[in-house]
Amino acid sequence: MTKVSERSLSIKAKLLTEGIRATPRALAGLGTIHKEQNHGLFGWDFEDHVGRLLPDDFVLSDGTVVQFRGNSGSPYVLDADGDGLALFEGEERLDAAGLIPRPPFYSTALADGTPMVKIAQVGGEDCFFVCYQNYCSHFARGQQCLFCNLVATKETYDSVLTRKQVAQIAEVAAAAFAEGNCKHILLTGGCFSARKEVETVVDIVSAIRNALGVDVVPGTVLPSPATNPDHIRAYREAGIAAIGYSMEIWDEALFRAICPGKSSTTGHRQFVAAIEEAVRVFGPGNVYGVFVLGLEPRDTFLDGVRSLTSIGANVVPFVWSPNPGSRMEGHSAPGWSWYVDVMQEAAEVVARSGVPAGTENHCYRCDGNSMLHDALRLRSIA
Ligand code: SF4
């Protein structure tokens, strides 16, 4: 593992909060040699780019993976530099950068003719990502989370199947892992009845496990919080190594305000109870509370990190951007230094807690929109 630098943490925070541009010569091999965005779930760019390919993510010289959030007004530019690429701010060269190779399965179709990339994508450098159903019932009632652009992204790009079949997912997983770059999976989906969701996730995990020929699939499922401990055990017994719950916001009142639909079906305490039970089933370090960082005060978020690590869970905080189609479109995220400070403090809390890093299931190479793994790498964790 390349040694990460504090400077990279700052660069990443700037790029995630202010977006980035790229010159045509920097993108010459995009969609053929290098991996492009395919909008498997949310759109993270500052502006829509229908008909124009943009990178999904890229890698700084110390291995830090950064999500590409397109913003034609950004001061940061990816451009050709010698034989490779580099990141510039005006005339200043900030760092060398490299786009991520395009997985061969992106150009392959399933036996039924469906392009594989419409079923699953690669997050970062090594994460096989599947959203088995791009649907959320909260939108129909205007109760969607204020930061979410799931439906707008699907309508704008229509780049993936809304519902993926179990056999399709297993076939793509086999192809992707055979290519050798995928190390982990991340599986998420839409809103179902609890029983239907458990059946669906168990079927998908079992099919992937069989397709890969492993006893336990390295990676994480992100289902709704189970009220029934049997459901948590069913996920584990299906053969997935880790589980996460998207709490989004730790502060209870803000959670209700920012996530009106989600909080009406699952309260803060229910999330915490599900995480506690999941730690008992999956073991310390193999359970995640997933957050959107930048919509609540630093102190309440850090309270959440302290509370969850004290019960043996890890956290994944995604850096919020006010993306198009979400109800927060046009707002501004906190400044980049706020994110650096909060991530450094969160990493201290995680490091002191002694919770196992769980990097065999989700690591710094899995995605470029969280900074906690990078802050932990500064402490030789993750
Ligand atoms: S629960 Fe919230 S974040 Fe998840 S898809 Fe629905 S609106 Fe989006």
Task: Indicate the topology.
Layout: H1 6-18, E1 21-22, E2 57-60, E3 65-67, E4 76-81, E5 84-89, E6 92-99, E7 121-123, E8 127-131, H2 150-157, H3 166-178, E9 184-188, H4 194-212, E10 217-222, H5 229-238, E11 240-248, H6 252-258, H7 260-265, H8 268-282, E12 287-293, H9 298-310, E13 314-319, H10 336-353, H11 372-377
Parallel strand pairs: 1-4, 8-9, 9-10, 10-11, 11-12, 12-13
Antiparallel strand pairs: 2-3, 2-6, 4-5, 5-6, 7-8
The structure holds iron/sulfur cluster.
Helicity level, as a percent range?
25-40%
Domain module count:
2
Query: How does the overall form come out from the CA principal axes?
Result: globular
Q: Could you report the average pLDDT, rounded to the nearest whole number?
A: 95
Poorly predicted tracts of residues? none
Stated plainly, the CATH topology of the largest domain is called TIM Barrel
How many strands, which pairing sense, and closed or not: the largest β-sheet? 7 strands, mixed
- The total beta strand count reads 13
What is the number of helices?
11
User: What are the secondary-structure elements, in order, as H or E?
Assistant: HEEEEEEEEHHEHEHEHHHEHEHH
Identify the CATH class of the largest domain: Alpha Beta
What is the second-level CATH architecture of the largest domain?
Answer: Alpha-Beta Barrel
Strand order of the largest sheet: 7-8-9-10-11-12-13
CATH superfamily of the largest domain: Aldolase class I
- Class by SSE composition: alpha/beta
Explain this structure.
- The protein folds into 2 domains: 6-99, no CATH class; 104-377, Aldolase class I (TIM Barrel, Alpha-Beta Barrel).
- The chain has 11 helices and 13 strands.
- 50% of the residues are buried.
- It has helices at residues 6-18, 150-157, 166-178, 194-212, 229-238, 252-258, 260-265, 268-282, 298-310, 336-353, 372-377, and strands spanning 21-22, 57-60, 65-67, 76-81, 84-89, 92-99, 121-123, 127-131, 184-188, 217-222, 240-248, 287-293, 314-319.
- The chain is α/β, with parallel strands linked by helices and 382 residues long.
- Strand 2 (57-60) and strand 3 (65-67) form a beta hairpin.
- The protein binds iron/sulfur cluster.
- Residues 136, 138, 144-145, 148, 150, 259, 262 line the site of iron/sulfur cluster (SF4).
